[in-house]
Amino acid sequence: MQDITKKFWLEKFDCFSISGKDARKFLNGITTSNILNSENKVIKTCWLTPNGVLRSLFEIIFLERKVEVIILAGNTNEIIDYFNQIIFPADDVLLSDPFLINRIQEIDESSSWRTYQPILFKTEDKEFEIYKNKLNLLNPNDLKLWKINQAIPSLGMEINGKNNPLELGLQDLIDFNKGCYLGQETMSKIKNVSSLKQEIRIWKTFESNFNLDVEDKNLYINSAKDISVGKISSFFKSDSQIKGLAMIKRKYLEEGSYFFSEIFGKIIINKSVGSIFL
């Protein structure tokens, strides 16, 4: 019998496994979470550039003899190539080829997407279709809007070679007490001096007439475009509304909840339940 009270997010993601006795130690030096001492069976974490910019969002599954890395957002080939390049000959670490995994997660509108643990099925699992058909799954449009409401970053949009995870509201995926990892120095510096320059926000428009041909992604303090307060990173248009994500300069967040876009006109901005800031 279908459970219509709960809603579920179903999506296929690229995944690969890391086996060998040094697998956790290897992953701990690359990602922002504490992989060595985690008591959870599943954790979410970030892979950063050396200067702290978000490159990818991972979900780590701890199994008895290996760990599996689900790429929630990122370039699969770039990730695996990099990981293979930094394995030392003395490391007991082996990466598998990538494979697809079906990831199912309960969702609600008022809790962060990081609240619920996923249910995972390999593509060949016969139980997957039976299980899936019992669930109230979000349709593709509703899923896109829910992801925007959660401020889940996307590759090429919010993950653009410029934004760090603290600006994207992913502070809870950073372990500030663990040992050295890629981007640690920048993360510590930002936290210690609270020097975030911008924060991610959800926006929606009230305008029915807008011009998608305009290339100006900036947001302004008013229609006169006197001051640029941030930049639109992504948007989605459904039948009922237009919503998106934007990076807003922190010093203008107290100026009010209304800004102006040359493309979308007057917009309102809000925080997301999925974001945590310093």
User: Count of DSSP E strands?
Assistant: 14
Task: Estimate the mean pLDDT confidence.
Answer: 93
Main pleated sheet: 8 strands, mixed
CA distance, first residue to last residue: 44 Å
Q: Any idea what the CATH superfamily of the largest domain is called?
A: Probable tRNA modification gtpase trme, domain 1
Based on helices, strands and strand pairing, what is the structural class?
alpha+beta
CATH architecture of the largest domain: 2-Layer Sandwich
Tell me what the structure shows.
With 278 residues, this protein is an alpha+beta fold. It has 2 domains: 3-150, 2-Layer Sandwich (Gyrase A, domain 2); 197-278, Elongation Factor Tu (Ef-tu), domain 3 (Beta Barrel), CATH 2.40.30. Helices cover 15% and strands 35% of the residues. It is built from 5 helices and 14 strands. The strands form 2 sheets. Strands 1, 2, 3, 4, 5, 6, 7 and 8 form an 8-stranded mixed β-sheet that branches. Strands 9-12-11-10-13-14 form a 6-stranded antiparallel β-barrel. It starts with a strand and ends in an 8-residue tail after the last strand.
